[in-house]
Design a protein that fits this description.
2 domains; TIM Barrel; globular; 6-stranded mixed beta sheet; alpha/beta; 3-stranded antiparallel beta sheet
């Protein structure tokens, strides 16, 4: 149910420590068939969607109590310091509102469960995959959480993908939501992200919004838009130059620039 912390990195470099943009950038949790199928087949919890929600609530409540003990220790010298717990420590940035939960959720009911829990604990979240988002677009627009749609260029490999469609990004964008697109690499190799954006345009997404969905919107969603996501004075010089419209299948990358250095040239 809880996968761990996420990190944002550049896609080029010799040493990962020097490629980091922000760490941590989010914390990953999962709803639906993935945790069910992973543990249920071994007759372990969680085997149901109710159990997924219960486990998440239980650990968030424990983390809240852990945080309370830390704060009491910081405020009162005579209060015992709680025993260090790495799992609880990883949830503190979430509870403090410093980073969001990245919520793996395909079905509408899973997204509503995630939103319900986020409100209970006053935490931020992003809705990742959002496969049935088009079915509840008005409700998601009312809530206003960032959505990350994809992978759409794939088969319906599990039952919760039965409503998979390339119409989703456009419908959500037209409702005013901050939409990003993903390929769920390596499910769909990340180099096909511009093609997925082009198909989304074909299915009703405005072209400018599709470009935002693979540039500035992901940066905003991850809280790194002060450095990347658009070409502006003061930001990292991360630029790609194409020989044609990047949404067209025949287009090629001519030059890739990261941190002001040419790292690829055709």
């Amino acid at each position: 149910v809880m996968g761990g912390e996420c990190i944002a990195i550049k896609t080029y470099g010799k040493r990962i420590d020097k490629m980091v943009i922000k760490n941590p950038v989010a914390s990953k949790i999962a709803f639906g068939e993935n945790p069910k199928s992973c543990y249920g087949r071994d007759e372990k919890m969680p085997q149901t969607r109710m159990a997924i929600a219960a486990l998440l609530r239980e650990h968030l409540k424990k983390a809240e109590e852990y945080l309370e003990q830390i704060e009491l220790y910081m405020e009162h010298e005579d209060h015992d310091k709680p025993e260090y717990d790495m799992k609880m420590e990883s949830l503190l940035p979430v509870l403090r509102g410093e980073i969001p939960f990245k919520v793996h959720a395909h079905r509408a009911d899973d997204m509503f469960t995630a939103i319900r829990i986020a409100k209970e604990f006053d935490i931020k979240l992003t809705l990742d995959h959002c496969t049935e988002g088009h079915l509840i677009a008005d409700e998601l627009a009312e809530e206003g959480y960032p959505v990350i749609v994809g992978p759409s260029l794939s088969e319906r490999s599990k039952i919760e993908l039965r409503n998979l469609t390339f119409d989703t990004p456009g419908i959500l964008s037209n409702e005013g939501l901050q939409v990003s697109l993903m390929t769920d690499h390596p499910v769909i190799p990340v180099q096909y992200l511009p093609i997925c954006a082009g198909i989304a345009v074909k299915h009703g997404m405005k072209k400018e919004k599709a470009l935002e969905a693979i540039t500035i919107n992901p940066a905003k969603t991850l809280g790194i838009d002060e450095r990347v996501g658009s070409i502006e004075v003061g930001k990292d010089a991360d630029i790609v130059i194409w020989d044609n419209d990047p949404f067209e299948l025949q287009s090629n990358v001519l030059v890739t620039i990261i941190d002001g250095k040419i790292v690829y040239e055709k």
